[in-house]
Amino acid sequence: MCVQSCGQGRTYCRQLCQMDKHACLQDARDRAKDDYRAYVRRQNAEKKPIKRDPSDFDRSYACGTSSCESRCESDRRDCYRDCGGQVIAREVCTMGCDQIPPQPAALPYTPKSDMQKPAGAAAPHAPLCRTGEEVEVLFEDEWYEAVVTGPLRPDGRCPIHYEGYDEDEDEAVGPKRLRPRLD
To answer: Quick one: where's region Disordered (predicted)?
Structure first.
């Protein structure tokens, strides 16, 4: 019964994540339409050509559910452990596997409160495409500082924002153009 309630809790949590994502996507589409219309009005008022299209204003990449679903998984693991179970974490690559360095062997799940990690230490093969991750992006043979703006897309590209540049310069890049920030 205890384990079954953990699974039901995760299912409910995931449904809420999906509802939030759909609402976010609808809001992003509405904002993109409004932003595009404003752009067209501005260009027409200034008698400039219209070079952009509605997709240039799409910011739906910010509507991912990965952090929400990660919280659902974390809650389920905690619930399962509270039921007396043991959780052993294992990651499986499903896309772009030939471009991702091999991961270390899976270790038993350890709650955050039990972990002792030295200050400043990072996993040697931590994935670069995590929202908020500071990276460098290769553009025309030069590396630029950027920040990841959303989760890895299904096509294997990572959405980024170049630091010091406008949002209209944002793009999604492949893993070969990403590297950790060299600070």
So the answer is: 156-183
Q: Is the pTM of this model over 0.90?
A: no
Asked if 73 contacts 89 with a C-beta cutoff of 8 angstroms, the reply is no
Residues 6 and 73: their CA atoms lie apart, in Å, by 10
Domain segments of the chain as ranges: 2-87, 134-180
- The CATH code of the domain at 134-180 is 2.30.30.140
Helices (H), the chain: 2-45, 66-82
176 in Cβ contact with 130 (< 8 Å)? no
Q: How do residues 39-74 score in pLDDT, each as one tens digit? A: 999 999 999 888 888 888 888 777 776 778 888 888
Token pair 């052993």 in the structure block, residue: 88
